[in-house]
Design a protein that fits this description.
It is a single chain. This protein starts with a strand and ends in a 24-residue tail after the last strand. It is an alpha+beta fold. The radius of gyration is 25 Å and the shape is globular. The strands form four sheets. It has a six-stranded antiparallel beta sheet with strand order 3-4-1-10-9-11, covered by helices on one side. Strands 5-6-7-8-12-13 form a six-stranded antiparallel beta sheet. Helix content is 39%, strand content 15%. The longest helix has 23 residues, at 507-529. The chain has 25 helices and 19 strands.
C-alpha cells in the first residue's frame, strides 16, 4: 500500500506538534512509519510505502513554491514547473490534464492544493487535527492519527444505498475522516480547508451541443494511446532478485511460489474488448513493450498476456478462444492461468487489511492467482464498462434533449432480449417519468422505499433497465438490514433532499458518474487486497484524460447496443490494429454468476461460522439469523441478489481485519494510537451477536 500524507497547520502552531521534526510522546518523532520526507515545516509532506524512484517527483521554483507528483505522470519537469507557476494564481484544472494516473500536490507559500482524480481511483482524504488540517491519499492513516471510531451511519449507507452519492456524502468508514469528491481539489490555507471543483458543470437550461461522433471516438483513441504510451515510456523495473534455487523448481516456478511478478510489462487478456484493446495497443506501439531479455526464456520483448481459465465453472470457452486468437501475434507471449475450487469466490477468506471495505474482498484470492503470473507493470481493462457504456438512465437524458428517435435502437434491443412486445412502452414511460422527476423527489422516493422495505428483485434485462431508470435505488444488501439501520439511512436521505434544489444535473449523467466512482473505489480496494509485491496494476480507462474523452461521446452513440465494442474496435483500427476474431466484444456474464454460486456452496460452512457472532450485528446493522438464512438460500440456488451477499461478507471480513490489527501508521502518538481503539460495542441490546 502506498500513500502520501501531510498537514497544514495554523501560523501560531507551525512550530509546535504539527511540524515534521517535532518530538512526540515517549521521545519519538511524530511521523508516518516507513516514510520519506518530501518537504518539511511548517506544512510537511511525506510519501509512505514502496514507491519507485520514478513515481515520486518534486520540482521547486523557490523555497516556498514547489510541486510534488506521485504516480505515473507523462509531464516533463519543465511542464511541471509551468504548471506550478500557473497554480500559484489559483488555476487547478491544468494540473489534472497530463497523461497517466497520479496525485499532484502544490505548495505556494502557506497555500496547499491537493488534486483528486475524476474517477475516484486516487482519492484524497482530510480531517481536522491540532487546529489545522491533515490530509492523505488513504483514510486509515488519518483515522490512526485522530483515533477515529467507526462511522456506523456510513457503513449502513454503504449497504443500503452504495450507488447514491447523497447517502454516502463525503464520509468514510472512519468517523471524522472526510473524502474529497471526484473532480475536486482540497485547498488548504494556513490550516483552513476548502473543497473546490475543477471541472465545468453542464447547464440544465439548454441541451448539450451536438458532438461529432467521429471526432469524439478519435479523442478516445488519442487519450488511450497516450495513456498506454506514458506507461511504456516509464523506466522498467525488475522485482527483487531470485534468492536462489529450490530443489525440483525451475525459475518460473520459484518466482510464482514466492509471489514475484515477471519483469517488464504485461496485460490481462480475458477475451473481452477492454483488456484486449489495452493488450493490443501496448504490444503494437513502437518501443519495447514486453519482458526484458534474459529474464524469461523465449519471451524476449514480447508483451506478457495473461488469461484466467476457470476449470471449476465452464462457460467461457468462446472467450478463451478469442483470447488465444488475439495472442497469436508475434509481439505477445500468452500465458493461461488455470484455477479450480481453490480460486472460486469465497474460497479464501484470509487477506490483508485494506484502507476501506469493498465487495471485491470475497474474490481477492481469485484475482491474486491471476496477477501472480503477471508482469511488474500489468494493464487491466477495469473501468471501460463504466466510462463507455450507457447507463439506462441516459435514456431520460435523450428525452431531456428532445432526441426521442435515438431511443429506438436500445429499446428494440431490450424488447428482443426480453421477448415482450410491451417492453418499448414500459421503457419509454419510465424514461419519460424520470426526465420529469426532480432530483429531490428521487431522493424522497428512495427514502420512502427504504423506510417501507420495498425491494423488488428485477427479472431479466428489461426489468433491470426499468429499475435503473430512477435517480437513486436501494443496494442489493438493503433487504437484509435491520429496520433501525434502514430508518437511519432514510432520515439521512430526507435531510439531503431538503438541502438539495430542484435538480443537480441530467439523471443519466448523474447515475453514470456515481457508478464510475463506486467501481473506482472497489478497484482501489482490489489493488490492496490482491497486491503482489513489486507489481503495479494500471487501469488506463480511469485516467483523467481518458475519462474526459469518454464523457464527450455523444449520447446517441453511447446508447446503441454494442457501443463499447464498436468504439474500441474503431480505436484499434485507428491505431493500425485489424483482424479481430469473430465474436469480439460479445458479453458473457452467466459464468460469473455460476462461479459465485459455486463458491457460496463450497464455502457455506465457513461463511455460516463467520456470521455466528458477526460484528455487523454488534453495530446494529443486521441480525445474524437473517444473514445466515440468506447465505443458506444463496448456496441452495434461491433467486437472491448475490451482490448483496458479497457486500455483507466483505464488510464483515473488513471489520474483523481492522479490529485484529495491532500496529499503527504513526510514531510519536499517544500509546501508539490507532483507529477504533475501543472496538465495536453493541449499539442495541436486541441485536447482540447471534440474535
Amino acid at each position: 500500500m502506498r500513500w502520501l500524507v501531510g498537514w497544514s497547520s495554523t501560523a501560531a502552531g507551525a512550530a509546535g506538534i504539527g511540524s515534521a521534526g517535532a518530538v512526540g510522546y515517549d521521545g519519538e518523532t511524530l511521523q508516518p512509519v516507513g516514510s520519506q520526507l518530501l518537504w518539511g515545516d511548517p506544512d510537511p509532506l511525506w510519501a509512505v510505502g514502496d514507491w519507485r524512484p520514478d513515481e515520486v517527483r518534486v520540482v521547486h521554483a523557490d523555497p516556498e513554491h514547489r510541486i510534488a507528483v506521485l504516480g505515473i505522470c507523462g509531464a516533463t519537469d519543465e511542464e511541471l514547473r509551468r504548471g506550478l507557476f500557473a497554480a500559484r494564481g489559483g488555476a487547478v484544472r491544468h494540473l489534472t490534464t497530463w497523461s497517466g494516473s497520479y496525485t499532484a500536490v502544490v505548495q505556494a507559500g502557506r497555500r496547499i492544493t491537493v488534486c483528486g482524480d475524476l474517477a475516484g481511483a486516487r482519492p484524497v482524504f482530510h480531517t481536522p487535527w491540532e487546529g489545522g488540517t491533515a490530509y492523505a491519499t488513504a483514510a486509515l492513516p488519518l483515522a490512526d492519527l485522530i483515533e477515529a471510531n467507526l462511522d456506523f451511519t456510513h457503513l449502513a449507507a454503504l449497504l443500503a444505498a452504495p450507488d447514491v452519492p447523497a447517502a454516502l456524502r463525503d464520509t468514510t468508514p472512519y468517523d471524522g475522516v472526510r473524502r474529497v469528491p471526484p473532480g475536486h481539489a482540497l485547498v488548504l490555507r494556513a490550516g483552513a480547508r476548502e473543497i473546490a471543483g475543477y471541472e465545468p458543470v453542464a447547464s440544465l437550461a439548454v441541451a448539450a451541443p451536438p458532438a461529432d461522433p467521429d471526432r469524439a471516438v478519435d479523442a478516445v483513441r488519442d487519450a488511450l494511446v497516450e495513456a498506454v504510451r506514458t506507461r511504456l515510456a516509464a523506466p522498467r523495473h525488475v522485482p527483487d532478485l531470485d534468492p536462489g534455487p529450490v530443489p525440483g523448481m525451475g525459475p518460473a516456478e520459484r518466482r510464482a511460489a514466492r509471489g514475484m511478478p515477471v519483469p517488464g510489462v504485461g496485460a490481462d487478456l480475458s477475451g473481452g474488448p477492454a483488456s484486449g484493446t489495452l493488450a493490443l495497443l501496448a504490444a503494437g506501439l513502437p518501443g519495447r513493450p514486453g519482458t526484458l531479455l534474459g529474464h524469461r526464456t523465449g519471451a524476449g520483448e514480447r508483451l506478457l498476456a495473461v488469461t484466467f481459465n476457470d476449470l471449476a465453472v465452464p462457460g467461457r470457452e468462446a472467450e478463451l478462444e478469442r483470447a488465444a486468437a488475439l495472442a497469436a501475434g508475434p509481439r505477445l507471449h500468452h500465458v493461461v492461468v488455470t484455477g479450480g475450487q481453490e480460486t472460486l469466490p469465497y474460497a479464501d477468506l484470509d487477506g490483508p487489511l485494506t484502507d476501506e471495505p469493498g465487495p471485491c474482498l470475497v474474490q481477492a484470492a481469485r484475482h491474486r492467482a491471476r496477477l501472480a503470473a503477471g508482469s511488474a507493470d500489468h494493464f487491466t481493462g477495469h473501468g471501460a464498462r463504466q466510462v463507455l457504456d450507457a447507463h439506462p438512465a441516459r435514456l431520460a437524458d435523450l428525452l431531456v434533449d428532445r432526441r426521442r428517435r435515438h431511443l429506438v435502437r436500445p429499446v428494440a434491443a431490450l424488447a428482443r432480449a426480453d421477448g415482450s412486445v410491451f417492453v418499448p412502452a414500459r421503457v419509454y414511460g419510465a424514461a419519460r417519468r424520470l426526465a420529469r422527476t426532480p432530483y429531490r423527489a428521487g431522493l424522497e422516493e428512495l427514502a420512502e422505499r427504504l423506510m417501507r422495505r420495498r425491494f423488488d428483485e428485477p427479472q431479466g434485462a428489461a426489468d433491470a433497465s426499468l429499475a435503473a431508470l430512477s435517480w437513486a435505488g436501494p443496494g442489493p444488501a438493503a433487504r437484509w438490514l435491520t429496520g433501525e439501520a434502514l430508518a437511519e439511512v432514510s432520515v439521512l436521505l430526507q435531510a439531503e433532499a431538503d438541502r438539495s434544489g430542484t435538480g443537480v444535473q441530467r439523471p443519466g449523467d448523474y447515475r453514470a458518474r456515481a457508478a464510475l466512482a463506486r467501481h473506482a473505489a472497489d478497484l482501489r480496494v482490489l489493488e490492496q487486497a490482491a497486491e503482489i509485491r513489486s507489481q503495479r496494476l494500471h487501469a488506463p480507462f480511469l485516467d483523467n484524460q481518458v475519462v474526459r474523452a469518454c464523457r464527450d461521446l455523444p449520447e446517441a452513440l453511447r446508447v446503441r447496443p454494442g457501443a463499447r465494442a464498436a468504439v474500441l474496435r474503431t480505436v484499434l483500427e485507428g491505431a493500425g490494429v485489424t483482424g479481430l476474431p469473430a465474436g469480439w466484444g460479445a458479453p458473457s456474464h452467466a459464468p460469473t454468476v455460476a462461479a459465485v454460486r459455486a463458491g457460496l456452496r463450497a464455502a457455506a460452512d465457513p461463511l455460516l461460522d463467520l456470521f455466528a457472532t458477526p460484528l455487523l450485528a454488534d453495530a446494529g446493522l443486521v441480525e445474524a439469523r437473517v444473514v445466515r438464512a440468506a447465505l443458506r438460500g444463496g448456496a441452495a440456488g434461491e433467486p437472491l441478489p448475490l451482490d448483496g451477499l458479497a457486500d455483507l461478507v466483505s464488510l464483515e471480513l473488513w471489520l474483523r481485519r481492522l479490529l485484529a490489527r495491532r500496529g499503527t501508521c504513526w510514531t510519536g502518538t499517544p500509546s501508539r494510537s490507532r483507529a477504533v481503539p475501543s472496538g465495536i460495542r453493541p449499539r442495541r441490546g436486541a441485536l447482540a451477536p447471534g440474535a
